[in-house]
TrEMBL record:
It comes from Kribbella orskensis. Its main location: membrane. InterPro entries: MFS, MFS_trans_sf, NO3_transporter. Belongs to the major facilitator superfamily. Nitrate/nitrite porter (TC 2.A.1.8) family. Keywords: Membrane, Transmembrane, Transmembrane helix. It is a multi-pass membrane protein. CDD domains: MFS_NRT2_like (cd17341). The lineage of its organism: Bacteria, Bacillati, Actinomycetota, Actinomycetes, Propionibacteriales. The chain crosses the membrane at residues 54-78, 90-108, 120-140, 146-164, 185-211, 217-235, 256-278, 290-308, 320-342, 348-370, 394-416, 428-449. It holds the Pfam family MFS_1. This is NNP family nitrate/nitrite transporter-like MFS transporter. It is found in: Membrane.
């Protein structure tokens, strides 16, 4: 068998290469044999094919994040477009896409082994047309009731699901030694969509005369169609990409899955939550500041820092980088509180940029911990490492952690909304976030770094 595209009957193989039973013909381009841990295979053909699949995946995920976070910047312009929603209602419009996106991540993870990474990238990209066109239609109608607009905003969660399927798919293409950087690069490309949407949408909707808010949705339609075409023409499906329900159940029984998922709320949940809330925070706290010129910076620096967090983790271990990320995030939170009390926008902005950089690096390091932890803790009946099962359960853990962590994108905006409503200030919410980071730091140290711990010598 070769690496060429084959629409014929596929012989499924597990990652150890054992032949399974013959299935009915599957449509699309399928690769039967894939062993990136074999240095000869990787140098001869594997690296080229893996990179060929990585770039379209990054582009599709970039658009997924862009659509997912469209409402984070659109809500800022709703009052000027004639909508009379309250601040709390606008925070709901910001938070709902994250809630739906987080919930979709588990089924999106299972979609890769069920339909193939290439095939599902095409489908998931085309699904982004629903929230884009829905937004374009309803933001031109100021009489739209809030419940209906909330439903439209919730459909943007489809973009959040893309992350889990994309990361699961790419994790199968690269060898363990390169996973940190590859996953970090793939995720960073997606995360960058948050910065781009917050930069470009304010420019596009005011191009020419007046405010044309429906362009915020229409501008993504041709790019979505392009992503689907690129996935169709360039990407491949892997027969070896198996993350079965049984593997997910096994991963769900592992305490490390839930430890890492909890940590991912602190890293990715903070990044996506702060990204979603940041434009509205600036608008409501410092109304004299032009949001369009500032809001994208946080998501931009957080996205750029993610692959470096993964790369550094490849060298020194993800647990150490994650601990350092939580320390810096705590410092950023305390600095933001000082800036708010001093009514200093400059201090507030710089503090949040520190938060974004640290959370972005922590995203990469936390994800890098997953394959390392499962490789060290998964054993066969003889007590030796079971690398096949470790890879499958690690892939399942990626889906679970990405789903759990994404709920931070809902909790953070709602936390800010409740803090503002009940206390008239963001400070109580910030203190709660800081306390949470202290808990995450302690949990990381206890489970993976403390002297004498079961994984302290493994450079997790």
């Amino acid at each position: 068998m070769t690496l060429e595209a084959r629409p014929e009957v596929v012989t499924p193989r597990d990652q150890a290469g054992a032949v399974g039973t013959v299935e009915a013909p599957r449509r699309g381009r399928w690769i039967d044999v894939w062993d990136p841990e074999d240095a000869g295979f990787w140098a001869a053909k594997g690296r080229r094919v893996a990179r060929r699949n990585l770039w379209p995946s990054i582009f599709a995920e970039f658009l997924g994040f862009s659509v997912w976070q469209l409402w984070s910047i659109v809500v800022v312009s709703l009052p000027a477009a004639g909508f009379g929603y309250s601040t709390d209602q606008m925070f709901w419009l910001v938070a709902l896409p994250s809630l739906v996106g987080a919930t979709l991540r588990l089924p999106y993870t299972f979609a890769v082994p069920r339909f193939g990474g290439r095939n599902w990238t095409i489908v998931s990209a085309l699904l982004l047309l629903i929230p884009s066109l829905g937004l374009a239609y309803f933001v031109s109608r100021p009489d739209t009731p809030f419940w209906l607009m909330a439903l439209v905003a919730a459909t943007a969660g489809a973009g959040g699901g893309n992350f889990a399927s994309s990361m699961t798919n790419i994790s199968f293409f690269f060898p363990e030694r390169d996973k940190g950087f590859a996953l970090g690069l793939n995720a960073a490309g997606g995360n960058l969509g948050v910065a781009v949407v917050q930069l470009l949408v304010p420019i596009v909707i005011v191009a020419g005369a007046g405010l044309t808010l429906n362009r915020a949705g229409l501008m993504w339609v041709p790019l979505i169609l392009l992503a689907a075409v690129l996935a169709w023409r360039v990407m491949d499906n892997l027969t070896a990409a198996t993350s079965s329900f049984r593997a997910s159940v096994a991963a769900a029984k592992r305490p490390h899955t839930w430890v890492i998922s909890f940590l991912y709320i602190g890293t990715f949940g903070s990044f996506i939550g702060f990204s979603a809330a940041f434009p509205l925070l600036i608008k409501t706290t410092f109304p004299e500041i032009t949001v369009a010129h500032i809001a994208f910076l946080g998501a931009l620096v957080g996205s750029v820092s993610r692959p470096f967090g993964g790369k550094l983790s490849d060298a020194v271990g993800g647990a150490w980088v994650t601990v350092c990320a939580f320390v810096v995030m705590g410092i950023g939170i305390l600095s933001a509180i000082v800036a708010l009390n001093a009514e200093s926008f400059t201090g507030f902005l710089l503090s949040f940029l520190v938060l974004f950089v640290a959370s972005g690096a922590g995203n990469g390091s936390t994800y890098r911990m997953i394959p390392a932890v499962f490789r060290q803790t998964t054993r066969d009946l003889d007590g030796g490492p079971d690398l096949v099962r470790a890879r499958r359960e690690a892939a399942a853990c990626i889906g679970i952690a990405s789903a759990v962590g994404a709920y931070g994108g809902f909790l953070v905006p709602r936390g800010f909304a409740m803090s503002s409503s009940h206390y008239g200030s963001l400070v109580p919410a910030l203190y709660c976030f800081c306390a949470f980071y202290v808990v995450c730091l302690g949990l990381t140290y206890f489970c993976y770094l403390r002297r004498g711990g079961p994984l302290s010598q493994e450079r997790v």
